[in-house]
Design brief:
The protein is an alpha/beta fold. It has 2 domains: 90 residues, no CATH class; 138 residues, CBS-domain (Roll), CATH 3.10.580. It contains 11 helices and 8 strands. A hairpin with an 8-residue loop joins strand 1 and strand 2. Helix 1 packs across helix 2, helix 2 runs antiparallel to helix 4 and helix 7 crosses helix 9. The longest helix has 21 residues. The radius of gyration is 25 Å and the shape is elongated.
Length: 246
Amino acid sequence: MDISNAARFLQSYNRIEAQLKLLHNARSAMNFTDLVKKCSDEDITVRRYAAELIDYGKLRNAIVHRAAGAADETVIAVPCDDVVQTIEFIEALICRPPRLIDAIKVKKIASVFADKPILTAVEAFREYRQKTLIVYDHGVMVGVINSYGLYAEIEARVRSGADLTSFFTDTLCREIVHESEMEKYRIMSQDATVFEIFVAFEEKKDLLAVIVTENGVFGEKALSIVTPSDFPRINRFLETYNAKPF
């Protein structure tokens, strides 16, 4: 009997089990079904494939048999090709998840210099049609200007009777950069996975965007900005892996 499919299945199964135990500090004696259920509460990928993983846990027990008193297990069943390919795919997602930057790539980011007048921010919003501008001061990211935040600044000045022309031409961008605005954003490393992005938006409902930098450090150059409008694009990328869409 050709047991190569069984060997491949068991290899992926063991790697998944080891990864889940490592990531979630589970007891070594915890059975696979309980491990999957525990991890489903904490890991978005395991949650998406929990049903398949539980089925594969049962299948694993059907594939091998250990006779009473024997030290080694014996293969008594062989899974079909589709099952083997699916568990290997799930293993890849759990153990080697695709990076966000591979799905989104580096893209043109709308930005403005801190020492330029507000009018340049307005022009950037018009040109790039993005809702967020990265503000740089001598090459260092110092914050963001959000289009809605700019609307609020304009409204406040209209209500106070201020000269809007002077506001647009004489006020510098750095003057409307507020630290509190960054609470609506999250900085992530270019090595973040696509699943971490979905988790970020799931955990913080009012999150406007994820700003991707090389090391996930505030101040670094932005490589990409991810918003919910990018989800279809990420899902199309995941389809090349045959992953379940979000």
